[in-house]
Amino acid sequence: MIKTITAVCALFICLSHGLRAQDLIASLCSRTYRIDGGTVLAFTAKDVEVRTRGAGGAETASKLPIALSVKERSLYMRTSGDLRIPGADLPAGRYLAVFGGGTLLLYSGDGREPSLIASDDGLKPETGYSPGTASSALKEDGREYSAERLHELVVGFPWAEGVTGPGIGQSVALGVYGSQLVPKSIKLFIVNGFVSYDRPELFRKNNRVKVLEVFEGNVKIAEIELADSTELQTFDLSITGWEEVRFVIKDVFRGERFDDTCLTMLHPMVTSESFEGLPSGPNE
């Protein structure tokens, strides 16, 4: 039986049905986010409160004024001063917020690692997978939209399939790093479409993925239904761990201008809890 998986995210209804910008802002402000060392961030529409617990257990709190705004379907945060906290150092400026499923990523530009990674449980994403290999990739204006950076936590460098039409049947595969430890489950972080710090309009102009078929080796193990949004969507996937995992485009949300289907992020998160035993081979 093939399992159908839907997104673990708070913004599905908000962004799929085009509700008001303040609903998107309210979603960010509806929960707290934790950074390494016990620092907690709590957002309102006008400030971010930073709560830090010292070595003696005493908690200190400070607030930094911010301005939240929505452009296209993307949420931006502008800070009026430097945000200096354990585990992050954010100069005053404008940041793109990509969030969902209890995780928040802040970006200061395209192609850069997140300036801040925070989650409601304090864990940071880690991957045990090699870069993606795709069945095709769009080449345009001297740039190839390959899957090389699809497994990284970056925006502005999506994979775009390279065939005529919306790319139904095109795929991208991720391989497990060689290890004695084999993951039995992974948590997928997916950012749909073309998400860009500088050009947020590219999300609606290009196709986004509606349904992904998931294969382990030649065996179909799941279908993933994605939200039509810029949010960070999370999915739990059970695997055997020995075969590469391949994601095939089954259906798309159509773009307003281009017939290229894009994915910005496909990041398999593997933690110590994902592993079982020390098998020596797939037949053991």
Task: Quickly list its features.
Jelly Rolls, eight-stranded antiparallel beta sheet, 284 residues, disordered C terminus, ten-stranded mixed beta sheet, mainly beta, globular
Along the chain, the helix and strand elements come as: EHHEEEEEEEEEEEEEEEEHEEEEE
Number of separate structural domains: 2
Mean pLDDT: 84
Helix content: under 10%
Structural class comes to mainly beta
CATH topology of the largest domain: Jelly Rolls
Shape: globular
Low-confidence stretches: 8-19, 277-284
Strand content: 35-45%
Q: Whole-Å distance between the termini?
A: 24 Å
Q: With helices defined by DSSP (H or I, 4 residues minimum), what is the helix count?
A: 3
- CATH homologous superfamily annotation of the largest domain: Galactose-binding domain-like
Largest sheet: 10 strands, mixed
CATH architecture of the largest domain: Sandwich
What is the CA-atom radius of gyration, in angstroms?
A: 19 Å
Can you identify the CATH class of the largest domain?
Answer: Mainly Beta
Tell how many strands the DSSP assignment holds: 22
